[in-house]
Amino acid sequence: MKNRIYFFTGTGNSLKVAKDIAEALVDSEIVAICKGVDIDVPEGYDRIGFVFPVYFYGLPDLVADFFNRIKLSIESAKYLFVIATPGGMSGKPIAQAEKILAEKGLNFNYGKKIRMNANYIIRYGSISLFYKTAMKAYDKRIAIIIDDIKSMKSNSIEKYSKRVESIYLDYIRSVHDTDTDYNTSDSCIACGICENICPAKNITLVNDHPVFHHQCESCVACIQYCPQKAINYGNKTQKRKRYTHPDIQHTEISKYY
After folding, report:
1. Domains in the chain: how many in total?
2. What is residue 238's DSSP assignment?
3. pLDDT digits (tens, 9 = 90+) for 153-169
4. Which residue, among 31, 25, 29, has the nearest Cα to 257 in the 3D structure?
């Protein structure tokens, strides 16, 4: 059996989910959804899955673009699944992805959400209560999802909502300019982590400081993984608690990106 799992992540949550599913399925490969990813999907897989966080009640913009461009057919896999990893309010990301795939004549066999630690540092710091609750429930929730995927279980996909889509579009239209408010302090050591973990290839080091090129996905990986806390959003994040998944190091993310 062959399986392929696509993932998009900023702080490691979705990569953790993708890895756990891939390890349980055994014969699996993991592919990052990032700028420049190959959109041609070979035929002959048993399962193809997609794992991603929820941004502004919907899909990260890069993920939405990937679904729109992906060359996927009924010959690609017997079974398609999608797992969303919201931290707070979950919106309708699975329905949004399903709507895009339906235009290609495809549908997901299975879709679920698994709550992870909320971590959108632009609006709030990592909250320890949410972290403990999410981590405590994770093992039980992922075990159920893995069993369902192993047995190729089907379920009903959430219904698409024009109202939720409208809210999503209001936010996502300006997402690429999020980095306009990013700044870097003198504590930057030019380690290059931010450049290496950016899924949008939005950061380059110039004169030993990161430069942002306004194709940001607002994944905030650069802020969260910076070892010096040198990258910040305006004057809002300097004192907020950072979060990265404890099992996912920046070296692992950069390996895929």
Report:
1. 2
2. T
3. 999 999 889 899 999 99
4. 31
Co-location of 162 and 183 in the same domain:
no
Q: Helix, strand, or coil here: 20?
A: helix
Q: 19-33 burial string, b = 16+ CB within 10 Å, else e?
A: bbbbebbeebebbbb
Report in angstroms the alpha-carbon separations of 91 from 55, 70, 229. 9, 23, 30
Contact 146, 20 (CB under 8 A): yes
Residue pLDDT, tens place only, 41-96? 999 999 999 999 999 999 999 999 999 999 999 999 999 999 999 987 789 999 99
pLDDT single digits (tens) 18-43: 999 999 998 999 999 999 999 999 99
Same domain, 112 and 234: no
Share of the chain above pLDDT 90, in %: 86
> Tokens representing 99?
């709507």
Q: In a 10 Å sphere around its CB, with 0-12 CB exposed, 13-18 middle and 19+ buried, how is residue 198 labelled?
A: buried
Please, how many CA atoms are within 13 Å of residue 224, restricted to the half-sphere of its CB?
27
Predicted TM-score (pTM) of this structure: 0.95
Per-residue model confidence (pLDDT) at position 235: 95
**Predicted local distance difference test score (pLDDT) of residue 180:** 97
Residue 237: CATH number of its domain: 3.30.70.20
Give me the amino acid identity at 139: D
* C-alpha dist (Å) from residue 222 to 92, 252, 254: 26, 14, 12
Q: d(Cα 43, Cα 225) in Å, to the nearest integer?
A: 36
The residue out of 166, 198, 231 marking a domain boundary is: 166
